[in-house]
Amino acid sequence: MTFSSLVVAITLTISYTATSSVVIDDTFSVDLIHRDSVDSPFYDRSMSFAQRMGHALQRSFINAKQFRSNINGSTYQADAIPDHGEFLLNISYGNPSQKVLAIADTGSDLSWMQCKPCTKCYKHTAPLFDPKSSSTYQPIDCESETCKAMTVATNCSATKKCGFLSLYADGSVSMGTVSTETITLGDRVLPNIVFGCSFTNDGVFQPTWGGIVGLGGGDYSLVSQIRTLVPGKFSYCLIPYPLTNEFSNKSSKMIFGDFDFGPNVVTTPLVQKIPKTYYHVTFEGLSVGNKRICISDDLNSTKPLLKGNMIVDSGTTLTMLPPKLYDEFESAIKEAINVRTIKDPQKVLNLCYRSAKVTKMPNVTMHFDGADVELSRDNVFVTVSKHIMCFGFLSSSGLAVMGNIAQLNHLIGFDLENNVLSFKSTDCERL
Fold first, then answer.
1. Arithmetic mean of pLDDT, 360-371
2. Which end of the chain is more exposed for a tag (fewer CB within 10 A), N or C?
């Protein structure tokens, strides 16, 4: 691979070990840890692989509610707090710096963490961040353009500082002050990053959870803010899940900046919508062998295909499809495989097989505007126990979502400067 500019390489650890930060030439790397990794505070050694995978699939059902569109399809309601994300990021705030392990959330823009003095906070196992102890902490004025541009609710405090309020449908709440601070990723220091210093939190928060790192497409996500340091492009390549209860030291990669995809890459437009948080593409349908199933068949065929009708989200496990399209897709897969189905031991998914019995797999392709993305067996089915695999797709009446199972072993690039999403089939372990 070649690098034409400063590149930030972030190593994502999906259920694998590795915690050190590394600086290599013009890149720096940190770990983004899967929530079920042995390095994650959510890891439960008493759970089997099958139980952990079952919980990940259940989180996809919860995430399905998070992308519910209104009639015009332009706004979304978050029905659950974002601790259902799949990845955790080690990040340090302040000078002197304090490390925080937070949810890396592609469905959020504003990063936030618990701060002192906390008037009402959930129990936190790590020390709270003290802004008074940091020489680089600076609250933002409520009359500033930054405060007015926030995608979360804001208000003006008695001291004329920019307050923020994040409300969730389950009753959870986070309130605090929008501020700027120096953050550290690996050995790279990034000054003047906008984040939320939260002084009041209540609801279903985990004691080991340090906050959020917003990786969405909005102006004040971490991804957007570091565009002053690197080109507005980032890519990642996700390694398939391990098939045993033990974890290896292999890791996935996320790269910020220019990256040479080489040949055999396909591209589709990123469709900007309000809010800009989510990464929208136009999904046209799927093929199973020679049978093409169009999404227009799921809608009123007299209406044009809705642009930006799918979100690409690394934080959701399953791929969510409109009900009629899902039913036709599942039927086509069953017909092509043509062996006896069994029940999901976790009672989550509908279509399951004994892995050894599936000796033939049809060619499966997802069709986007201008891009055909071929899916492997690992993209279509997820191993839920030692001998059982289940269909990695979900029927949902909300907005369609391409989840991380469908993205495994694909190099996926987000070009925010030219609004283009790239796909390339890749052995991510060798990248």
1. 96
2. N
Grouping H, G, I as helix, E, B as strand and the rest as coil, residue 57 is: helix
DSSP string, 95-114: TTTEEEEEEEETT--S-EEE
Q: Give pLDDT, residue 299.
A: 46
Whether 83 is catalytic is no
Amino acid 15 reads S
Is 0.70 surpassed by the pTM of this model? yes
> Cβ distance 196 to 110 under 8 Å?
yes
Q: Report yes or no: 333 and 327 within 8 Å, Cβ to Cβ.
A: no
Whether 194 contacts 110, CB under 8 Å: yes
Residue with tokens 């004040």: 220
What is the number of alpha carbons within 13 Å of residue 4 lying toward its C-beta? 6
Q: Which of 36, 39, 298, 313 is flagged as catalytic?
A: 313
User: CA–CA separation, 310 vs 293, rounded Å?
Assistant: 16
Catalytic hit among 105, 109, 298, 415: 105
369 is catalytic: no
CA 142 to each of CA 90, 116, 369: distance values in angstroms, whole numbers, following the listed order? 29, 20, 42
Give residue 391's pLDDT: 94
Q: How far apart are the first and last CA of the chain?
A: 9
Q: How many CB atoms lie within 10 A of CB 173?
A: 17
Q: Chain-centre distance of CA 149, in angstroms?
A: 23
Q: Which residues contact 304 (CB under 8 A, 6 or more apart)?
A: none
**% of the chain with per-residue pLDDT over 70:** 71
User: Which stretch of DSSP H or E encloses residue 293?
Assistant: strand 291-294
State the CB neighbour count (10 A cutoff) for residue 211: 26
- Predicted confidence (pLDDT) per residue in 351-362, tens digit: 999 999 999 899
Residues in the chain: 431
How much is the pLDDT for 108? 78
Residue 20 clears pLDDT 60, i.e. is over it: no
pLDDT (tens digit per residue) in 227-246: 877 788 888 888 777 655 55
Q: Could you report the per-residue pLDDT of 274-291, keeping only the tens digit for each?
A: 888 899 999 999 999 999
**Two tokens, residue 25:** 């030439």
Could you tell me if 354 and 98 are in contact, meaning their C-beta atoms sit under 8 angstroms apart? Answer: no
